[in-house]
Amino acid sequence: MKRKMIVLSADALVSDDMELFGTLPNFKKYLAGGASVKTVKTCYPTITYPAHTSIATGTYPDRHGITGNDVFYPEPGHRPWEWFHDSVRVPDIFTYAKRAGLTTAGVFWPVTGNHPDIDMLIDEYWTQGEGDTKREAFRRSGTSAEIMKIVDRYADGFVERSHPGADIFVMNCAADIIREHKPDLIMIHPANIDGYRHHTGLFNEKVNEGIKETDSFIGQLCRAAEDAGTLDETNFVLISDHGQLEIKRSVKLNVLLSDAGFIRVNDGKITGCKAYIRSGGMCAYCYVYDRSVRDDVYSYLCHLRDEGVYGISEVLTEAESREKHRLGGQFDFVLETDGYTSFSEGVVRPLTDNFKLDDYRLGRATHGYMPDKGPQPVLYAKGPSFRDGATIDRCDIVDEAPTFARALGFEMKDTDGVVLEELLK
Fold first, then answer.
1. Fold (topology level) of 248-363
2. Residues 28-40: pLDDT tens digits?
3. Most exposed of 48, 244, 314, 362 (fewest Cβ within 10 Å)?
4. Phi-psi region of 58 (alpha: psi -120 to 50; beta: other; left: phi over 0)
């Protein structure tokens, strides 16, 4: 029997949520009693785009090259997000599936814009400035004319980066793709739970609403597979990318670099820059542009860490981050949170920033910290490839893609992860 797979990645869903999730009707109907991993160790940084690229490629950020949600630029200022797949340095499960003769679909799966091996694509991408339209944005990021017919059905009600409205758009489109096109592999990314946690904190009634919404998403997708006549051959997988921690303050580390003479600021604007700190939420990257001061910058950052009041618990060199956490890139240093401090990029006092609900890095809860901290992601799977009742206490996020590939009948070569044989028939 040919096997299919639906992967639903519920952004920021954690193991602590499963007590409620396990009581909900669609989880009970379609996932309960299947295979599971109690907690998944995600990548560093615990940020959506690096994590989803690790899920899809089975590799860590030092290999796939996605180190944050936004694109690295050699100078401070506005940066676009990592919308497009050409930034990814290694093949992913979509490419391997196409090589194996399978049909593929992705709906709001991060870093898939213009992916050559996704047959039915709606990238997580939004309009870019005044005059741009949602339809043109999706076309520009790789949505075909055939899939645009589905987008057009729901685009009027789609509000970018709004929850649950954006997620309902995602689910409506995904369900129609399943019903009408029957892809062998579809990977879908709603972000309602993540958005609620950023806005309201880690555990509360609003987050519980998001869990219940996600249960309804499971039902919608599985009913679409029933309508298509493919549910019996479909493996349904529920995963997540990272957890979150509540933050108490946000610190503008670039103000401190300015105090030390590494940044020159005039009338609130940077006029000279020897080094700069880019926020990753509860981690930050330091880029040194004047190589003659690299050692001075490192010593200063270590001094800030040792002072114990600026929210920095560790300062890692790029080489140390690569060796310890498989995170590598064009940065010089990585700064890790103390567990309750987020980092922002402001250059003007006061030293601390207010909560900013329109910036995921500065909400009431966020992520980016080292992967063993805080509530942990999960994996639940049920279908013809998975063993009912099989449970693993813990796996790595890079184990997911090779396991999904094996469940679909093909292999992914040269990944950092392994196949979770215990979960499979």
1. Gyrase A; domain 2 (3.30.1360)
2. 999 999 999 999 9
3. 314
4. left
